[in-house]
Amino acid sequence: MMDNTDSVDEIRAIITRHKRWDLLALIAGIIALMIAVLTFIALFGSMVIDGMPRITLEFFTSFPSRKPEIAGILSAWVGTTLVMLVTAAAAVPLGVAAGVYLEEYAPKNLITEIIEINVTNLAGVPSIIYGLLALGLFVYQMGLGQSILAAGLTLALLILPIVIVATREAIRSIPVAIREGAYALGATKWQTVADHVIPYSAAGILTGIIIGLARAIGETAPIITIGALTFIAFLPPSPVQEQFPFLSFDWLMDPFTVMPIQMFNWISRPQEAFQHNAAAAGLVLIIMTVIMNGLAIYLRYHLRKKIKW
Amino acid sequence: MAKIPAAINTPPKSLRHNHKRHLKERIIELLLFLAAFLSVFITFAIIYLLISESLVFFKHVPLWDFLTDTQWTPLFDDAHYGILPLLSGTVISSLVALAIALPFGTIIAIYLSEFAPFLVREIAKPFLELLGGVPTVVYGYFALLFVTPLLQTILPDLPGFNLLSAGLVMGIMIIPYVSSMTEDAMRSVPMHLREGSYAMGATRFQTAITVVMPASLSGIAAAYILGISRAVGETMVVAIAAGMQPNLVWNPTEPAATITTYIVQVSLGDLPHGSIGYQTIFAAGLTLLLLTLVFNILGHLLRKRFREVY
């Protein structure tokens, strides 16, 4: 009997010890998560403290200047908007088309497999390498120069894998029955895809596009590599004209700057006042990307839940 | 018996096998294929450009000098073209980043996959995604103007530009990538393996360490490799916070340049097309691409194996 209680006590001790490890692991997990949260709070807080006083209406409507107190981000946010227009116009059709092909059309053969491996690999190529590609291909070989068009196309190539992967995932979640129903009514493959598959997966595709564009807004390195200027005190010609044909594409070939480059330029200056400007630009940049990412997360969680196949 | 209407026996013209309609389908398929094939074209364009410019570079600079010279001063009169200082900067900053990202990423993944209640996981995952979405130039600002001054209170000799704070911030930036992929790998381990372990009297921690992690090992390894590849290719944090002097150093508290920093630094100046400076950034880029390619292929092989486990 004595032996028995001893071993029960021993087992109890072992259980307590193991439970202690369990608790330690739990605490470690919470602490690790808290460190990530605290870092974000510190990052956001330091931006708010340094940059908030600079965020006024004038900050958005002034050109950069040698005097920090009157410098603004007008040319930067206009440049970012125009570059994003080009990026979306190039990346969305190409990415969705590639995703549709790989998911709906692609036969199982070597070429398809090569394309698939390629897409995965491209997602892992450092962004600055895309900058070098753009410098050689767009700026010099195609003669686009250091223009909005070259920058937009560069970022489009960069986010193409994101759009492709998101499109494929969205399409994969649509049941085969939908396609069979369309075929049964005599629809062709493209009619099925264009009238059913793409519209039903639109929420998922849109999520991928938003995440891709949020990434593109913050990308700095590839734009620096193609030689974007850091000091721009003019705006490109307006895309909307008063006279026929009302739309102008002259802005595509214009020099430009974007938000992250403007911020980088201000960080690199020794005067503290410019660093407050950098913080303000960073704050605008964070808020823009957080809103976009938040929108994508919202779309993923709420729009998809409503669909019941 | 009712008479079958003639229309059913002879379908309307629009439904008969129609060459125009067939042709349209073929053209659309071809266009979609071209869009998909573009990714292969991009890859070849990258490889072609980097190699062709590097070949011109290596006509000026012997490969042996490139690999062994301990100085990287391509734009000085006394030009040296040794990649080692840039490599050492890249390796040191990546090691610091990984020393943060891998353990913290793994612990967060274990917590989220094995310990966290449903609600915590649902909130934490999107939050970590937001953290991964913050532009890198903002992290650079944070490293230079928040982390470095903070570290200087502990290490008073720390220079304003150093690899340590750049690496630390880079590590925190990479945590979400590592934790989310690791968690995906751990969650795909079938429930019955865990249940078997619990039935044997194992605790959650024991189950996580001895059952779930070994079962998802190749997925976890793939996540680590993705983290390494990110750290090696990361640009703006090091460009802002680590300084831009190519020093052959092994001490993270010193300023140094990485491969990516050098490319940014040279691109900021006015670089004439075809000059030796222009070619050096392609040679540096080729080195970087080869480095990340090795990691990407490793990660791909591991992911492929990991998919076939169950």
From TrEMBL, chain A:
Major subcellular location class: membrane
Looking at the Swiss-Prot or TrEMBL record, what is one Pfam family this protein matches? BPD_transp_1
**Database matches in SUPFAM superfamilies:** MetI-like
- State the membrane topology: Multi-pass membrane protein
Taking every annotated instance into account, which residue ranges of this chain make up the domain ABC transmembrane type-1? 77-296
> Which keywords, in A-to-Z order, does the entry hold?
Cell membrane, Membrane, Transmembrane, Transmembrane helix, Transport
Q: Which GO terms describe its biological process?
A: phosphate ion transmembrane transport
Q: Name one GO cellular component term.
A: plasma membrane
Q: Which CDD domains match?
A: TM_PBP2
Q: Where in the cell is it found?
A: Cell inner membrane; Cell membrane
Task: Identify the domain of life.
Answer: Bacteria
Write down the Gene3D superfamilies for this protein, in alphabetical order.
MetI-like
Regions that span the bilayer: 23-49, 70-102, 122-140, 147-166, 197-214, 278-299
Q: Which GO terms describe its molecular function?
A: phosphate transmembrane transporter activity
The record's section on NCBIfam families has: 3a0107s02c
Describe the family membership recorded for this protein in Swiss-Prot or TrEMBL.
Answer: Belongs to the binding-protein-dependent transport system permease family. CysTW subfamily.
Q: What's the protein here called?
A: Phosphate transport system permease protein PstA
Annotated organism of origin? Nitrosomonas stercoris
From TrEMBL, chain B:
Superkingdom of this entry's organism? Bacteria
Q: Which NCBIfam families match?
A: phosphate_pstC
Q: Which family does it belong to?
A: Belongs to the binding-protein-dependent transport system permease family. CysTW subfamily.
According to the UniProt entry, its GO molecular function terms are: phosphate transmembrane transporter activity
| Regions that span the bilayer | 30-51, 91-112, 133-155, 161-180, 201-226, 276-298
- From what organism does this protein derive? Nitrosomonas stercoris
Upper classification of the source organism reads: Bacteria, Pseudomonadati, Pseudomonadota, Betaproteobacteria, Nitrosomonadales
Keyword list (alphabetical) reads:
Cell inner membrane, Cell membrane, Membrane, Phosphate transport, Transmembrane, Transmembrane helix, Transport
Which Pfam families is this protein grouped with?
BPD_transp_1
Q: Report the protein name in the record.
A: Phosphate transport system permease protein
How is this protein annotated for GO cellular component? plasma membrane
**Which SUPFAM superfamilies does the UniProt record give?**
MetI-like
Q: Which residues form the ABC transmembrane type-1 domain?
A: 87-299
UniProt entry tagged with the keyword Transmembrane helix: yes
Q: What is its main location?
A: membrane
Tell me what topology the record assigns in the membrane.
Multi-pass membrane protein
Q: Give the protein's biological function.
A: Part of the binding-protein-dependent transport system for phosphate; probably responsible for the translocation of the substrate across the membrane.
Record-linked InterPro entries: MetI-like, MetI-like_sf, Phosphate_PstC
User: Is Zinc included in the keywords of this UniProt record?
Assistant: no
Q: Where in the cell is it found?
A: Cell inner membrane; Cell membrane
What are the BP-aspect GO terms?
A: phosphate ion transport
